[in-house]
Amino acid sequence: MTEFTLFRANPRALLVFLATASLALPSPSAMAETGGVLTAVLGSCDAEISLVKDRLMEPKDHDLLGLTFTTGSIGENKVVLAKSGVGKVNAAIASALLIERFRPTRLIFTGVAGAVSPDLLPGDVVIGATMAQHDLGTWTDDGISRRGFANPITGTRNPTGFPADTKLLARAELAAARVALMAAVVDGTRRKPRVTSGVVASGDTFIASTGKRRELREGLGADAVEMEGAAVAQVCHQFKVPCVIIRGISDFADSRAEADIDKFMEVAARNSAMLALEMLAE
Length: 282
Ligand code: ADE
Hints:
Blueprint: H1 3-9, H2 11-23, H3 28-33, E1 38-43, H4 46-55, E2 57-64, E3 67-74, E4 77-83, H5 88-102, E5 106-115, E6 125-133, E7 137-140, E8 143-146, E9 161-163, H6 166-178, E10 184-186, E11 189-191, E12 195-202, H7 210-220, E13 224-226, H8 229-238, E14 243-251, H9 257-279
The structure holds adenine (ADE).
């Protein structure tokens, strides 16, 4: 029996179905309290979302095809939080499902990244002013020629770099002036973390190579590298959802990257999440 024939035979079943379906979304009255603003927060792993999860009041889990989306509030803000998993495909799946089901007003991704700019050190935070997929384009004998492919919704070509939403970027930069970040100890020296904005490159490989790091800097002007942000930015661009990507520096994307990420993951993930939370504090 299809849902339609079930509902014709039993109209009460339709009421139960509609009531259950509406429970999965933030209630209209809850949305009205915040002017209808719903902020989506995504991270790739538990370490990246745990601080935000801990601040979520009245959390409520919603299962969507096996992924968990948690609604709740942080201060005056209605929030939906999810863990995407690592890599651009996982990030695109989570952001598309989230947008389809919850229709967020804006999306903030928080997580960690490898430093490509020589000015960045572990614990620093980069706000992605531009997000680019470093492994998208055409491979030639001279290396990669980076370019976006068509947006299937509009038929127009996507840019190589997706700019952050200007209002969210400005909000993140204002929040950066207020936020209290955790100092990282790098090579025995405790250092006050800095927040900058710049180019964040995303690709489906963990970068632990000085040569690749140099290519990302010279070929793309990248400041930091990670594995999800530009995919989220593309999904948000195609579905017209304002977004910004925030990343704490966990390593130098060089031959020591795998050891460094173990050492600096906590401070990097924490500082990124602190800035995301500060954006909600306004
Ligand atoms: N995330 C954190 N560090 C990274 C690196 N070196 N490469 C890709 N993603 C990262």
